[in-house]
Design a protein that fits this description.
This protein is an all-alpha fold. 65% of the residues lie in helices and 2% in strands. It has 6 helices and 2 strands. It has a two-stranded antiparallel ribbon. Helix 1 packs antiparallel against helix 2, helix 3 packs antiparallel against helix 4 and helix 5 runs antiparallel to helix 6. The longest helix has 33 residues.
Length: 203
């Protein structure tokens, strides 16, 4: 049975919106009092110091919102998502304070994106792959259609754009590319290239 959209998107969205709106101003005051700010320099766009604890508010708002729906929504992948968000939050905060090297930050972001793509792929297709393996067939996702590859392309594009394009534009472009590739693949009936294999099937 499909979980209603209100439990998977609408209610968590408004819970997160409320929590972030409530927590964020308090964290900003703390950051300003403790001088936990990102000071402007040659490689940053802002002209005045910016509090660096805003990501903490978003982190807790999203996690609590998703976790609050655990009674009606499968949240088995949430621990991995939390770890990925913590890694990004920690990396971003340390970069603001210590100015991490771009190569190290980029490497961490690639690992996090690939981890999230892997979890999404496992969650969305794991059952089908297991079914095909037990039936002695080549897993469907490995021989037809474009799913995970579109997500990987979008994730890599986001990481590349994020190095030069600050703000929501980078992630929005990545999302649009993923959706565009998937829609084009469905419309033009694109499939993954088929390689010679020794997979034994009863077909």
């Amino acid at each position: 049975m499909t979980t209603p959209l209100c439990y998977t998107v609408i209610i968590p969205f408004f819970i997160a919106l409320f929590l972030v709106g409530w927590i964020h101003p308090k964290l900003v005051k703390i950051a300003l009092l403790k001088n936990i700010v990102d000071n402007p320099d040659a490689r940053k766009l802002q002209r005045t110091p910016v509090p660096v604890l805003g990501g903490v508010a978003v982190f807790f708002g999203v996690v609590i919102a998703i976790g609050s729906m655990s009674a009606v929504v499968d949240c088995s992948g949430l621990p991995v998502v939390i770890m990925a968000m913590m890694a990004m939050l920690y990396t971003g905060t340390m970069d603001d304070i210590l100015n991490l090297s771009p190569s190290l930050r980029f490497l961490i972001e690639i690992v996090v994106v690939l981890l999230l793509v892997f979890v999404g792929l496992l969650t969305g297709t794991g059952g089908g792959v297991l079914r095909d393996v037990l039936a002695g067939d080549m897993p469907y996702i490995l021989r037809k259609h474009i799913y995970a590859s579109a997500s990987i392309v979008g994730g890599i594009l986001y990481l590349l754009l994020r190095q030069v394009w600050h703000g929501p534009g980078a992630i929005l472009t990545g999302v649009l590319v993923v959706v565009g590739i998937r829609c084009a693949a469905a419309h033009f009936e694109w499939n993954l290239p088929r390689a010679k294999t020794v997979w034994k099937s009863g077909e």
